[in-house]
Amino acid sequence: MANTHSVPLLIDGQDVQHESTFDVISPATGELCWKAVSASADDAIKAVESAQAAFSSWSQTKPSTRTAILLKVADILEAKAEKYADYMMAEMGADRGAAQFFVTPLAIAMCRDIAGRISSVCGSVPVVAKEGQSAMVWKEPYGVVLGVVAWNAPYVFGIRSAATAIATGNTTVIKSSEVTPRCYYELGKAFKEAGLPDGVFNVVACRPQDAPMVVNTMIEHPAIRKVNFTGSAATGRKIARTCADHLKPILMELGGKNTAIVLEDADLGKAADECLAGAFLNAGQICMGTDRIVVHTSVMSKFTEILQQHLESFSKSSPGPPTVSSAASKQRLADLVASALSSGARFIAGPSTQPSSPRNLPPHHPHGCFPRNPALPRRILWSARHPLNLHHRLRSHHASEFHRLWSPRRGIQ
Predict the structure, then answer these.
(1) Is the Cβ–Cβ distance between 167 and 201 less than 8 Å?
(2) Relative to the CA of 285, which of 90, 121, 201, 327 has its CA 20 to 30 Å away?
């Protein structure tokens, strides 16, 4: 999908091009997809000021108008789902299944859901303590909301960050990931096509080394009233500090470390399938994926056998090894594999040699990692006599958590 055209910024409804660009390299092929314009501090300020200028009018629009626009956005995404999936596949190496049949449909459903909730955003009349007094609570838009978004589910994060702000009468600037600038630009164009006024939704991208400067410039701008961040805990801390310095609220979703717990009465075949789907969807690059599996000791041997069979079948049916986002990501994962082996783990699945491609890594599944091993946050399998009592050992101080349990007797599947 190589293209000599540079992906522009989207400011005040207009494409912004200039000579400062960066290369967008496909993880799947290692080749240039296209170049993208790299925003300067001046570009960032212009984007914020565009959103600020659009706010006074947009904040007064009727809920029915906002609902209609978001529903139209969902229709556009649905009609062009294959094209949007192509951009994901090119920029982040996603497979067709994850791009077209998971991320894009989820974004479409989310957009329609947000549209359906607009009419329910209303105030209240609370009871007061003294006679002769009354009170009213009404909700007003913040103003300009800055969204700093991740790369691994661009349409979902774009809808969640931008559509929620727009639905409630705010305007927004999205600072897209440098990995997927075209995905976010095309999402912004879909909103424009749906009839969103210029300036309500702005999109900027920049070179990785310029990101702190661009993000801080926007946070420090008086017009930014709230920040929405999706990304790593390390970056989240830095952004939160900047927001705190300027007394601006921030909503963050940070990386997840998640556990599947398989109890003694579980349907082991179903549990194995679901664990693998959670572990390797989007090459495992997803915040609510299966990072570790804790199995009741009484069924550990049988579950391991079933899991190994299903993983071998999964690997044979896949067109090739999953593609991770960068060579650095592959190396980090390979280092975790080596660390687990050196700490006494054994693999129920995983190749003895690594592929030559700098961004492809076959599925690995270690067994028996000690809970405090550095490889614990990744894909591991270990047993316990009382899995439900392990929550304190499973908790991470650096990430949010999702847990999934299989136990039909307890009504949990």
Answers:
(1) no
(2) 201
Residue 284: half-sphere exposure toward Cβ, Cα within 13 Å: 26
Residue 356, pLDDT above cutoff 90: no
Domains defined along the chain, listed by start: 9-118+139-253 (3.40.605.10), 259-410 (3.40.309.10)
382 compared with 259, residue with greater pLDDT = 259
Q: Quick check: helix, strand or coil at residue 47?
A: helix
Q: Is the dihedral of CA 185, 187, 192, 197 positive or negative?
A: negative
Task: Write out the two tokens for 368.
Answer: 């028996």
Which residue in the list 220, 253, 274, 401 is annotated as catalytic?
253
CA angle 397, 401, 406 (to 5 degrees): 135
User: How do residues 308-329 score in pLDDT, each as one tens digit?
Assistant: 888 877 766 666 556 665 666 6
Q: Is 31 a catalytic residue?
A: no
Q: Which of 232, 207, 202, 234 is nearest to 218 (CA)?
A: 202
* Most confident among 22-36, 120-134, 162-176 (mean pLDDT): 162-176
So what's the pLDDT on residue 341? 66
